[in-house]
Design goal:
It contains eight helices and seven strands, in the order βαβαββαβββααααα. It is an alpha+beta fold. The protein folds into two domains: 123 residues, no CATH class; 118 residues. A seven-stranded mixed β-sheet has the order 2-3-4-1-5-7-6. A hairpin with a 4-residue loop joins strand 3 and strand 4. It starts with a strand and ends in a 5-residue tail after the last helix.
Amino acid sequence: MRDLTFKAFAITHEIDLNKIAIHCGIPKKFTWEEPLILKGDILKSILFQNVDESQMVLVFSFGSIVFINHSTPNEVTAFLNYLHSFEPDIDVKSVDRYSDDYSLHIKETESIELTDEYVVVPEYESYYPELISTVLAKSVALEKTEEQLGQINDKLETMIDRLEKGKLRIGNKELARTTAKIIRHEYNTLAYIMILDKPDITWTSSTAGEFYDRMLEFFELNDRYKILKSKTEILYNIMDGFSTISHSIRGLFVEWIIVILILFEIVLSLLGIAGLLP
């Protein structure tokens, strides 16, 4: 078995695997946990060129795709154009924004060797392509989510600057939009990327489970996930503070209106008693 090369992209938030499977004539209903693996004649019909048995594309429901042993940019572009017909929001020209390259080397060694660019194993196992692809797919998806979290932080910083300048009023729509972004960020991380979920093979094969856990730890997916979760909780606390200030200001405004109306009624009563009103 020759070495394998991997190239992963995070291109969108969600991909409907079942629509693609139906179009490819694959009689299977895919769940969130498993990728759609395209190879052989199916991949050949998509790329309009011959492919060898080691070439494949794994499509993940949380918006990542991984190419295995695809050496030319034309192959990647051809597949992305095909995928664009199912997911029109994919920006084909900007797919390199969240991407990663990796490789699998098979050679005589006493133990598995992990590095930032490749992994060396003593012998090939059939589960390596899927497990490596899954880790890479989640890693680039997390990278995309991490940048989006930074954009939310920038928005909150702007709101904090306004508070420091004495501009205490924050509209309900602005609060709702910002809160929605935080919720969407958390949902994309927890529900879509499914960092805590493992591929099925890891439950039936102890060696596969050990390899996946090592990859997961090396790419620090659990640590990155925990950091995102803690940052999200901080964002929620900040939004609670904004909401409290906003409601307090509105409550104070209503109280002043009530006081003014009561004073106005008292003045009218006094004027009436003094005979100054008809």
